[in-house]
Design goal:
It contains 6 helices and 6 strands; from the N terminus they run H-H-H-H-H-E-E-H-E-E-E-E. The chain is an alpha+beta fold and about 150 residues long.
Length: about 150
């Protein structure tokens, strides 16, 4: 039985005509679990998800990548999520939105477990398989001159 009738067997390369960015941004569909969403990305053609610059940036990342995630009281129980960022400042913005005093977390992940990198909203967003996140800790704000992400 086809678990993802709107994607499989075509993968996201065909979903491009459905505007995969909108599909990803509107992933609050209760009918699609994190497991299903992870599988959709795992079986997707990265070239259909990312533009050439994003593909090149992903390819240039170190084998182990530092990622950040900003959470508020609204989503603090969703730390093992698919969407993280390479940029501390972006994660901090997410932690402080809605007038919240949220938390920024930092983790490590092997590049092979990153499905895609998106720069469309200047977020340096990485979509990854959260079961491979390692060393998740509360992040400290980087000091002046300290490398933020890559």
């Amino acid at each position: 039985m086809n678990q993802f009738p709107y994607l499989y067997p075509h993968s996201l390369s065909e979903a491009e005509r459905l505007n995969e960015e909108e599909l990803w941004q509107d992933n609050r569909d209760a009918e699609v679990s994190h497991t299903q969403l992870t599988e959709m990305f795992r079986h997707s053609d990265p070239a259909a998800l990312m533009d050439e610059a994003e593909q090149a940036q992903l390819a240039e990342l170190d084998d182990t990548v530092t990622v950040y995630r900003g959470v508020t009281t609204i989503n603090s129980d969703n730390l093992l999520a698919l969407s993280w960022t390479l940029d501390y400042e972006t994660a901090d913005w997410f932690a402080r939105r809605f007038d919240e005093d949220g938390t920024v977390y930092k983790a490590q992940i092997d590049k092979e477990h990153i499905f895609a990198l998106f720069n469309g909203r200047d977020e340096s967003e990485v979509v990854l398989d959260p079961k491979y996140l390692k060393d998740i800790t509360q992040a400290q704000e980087p000091t002046q001159g300290q490398e933020l992400s890559m």
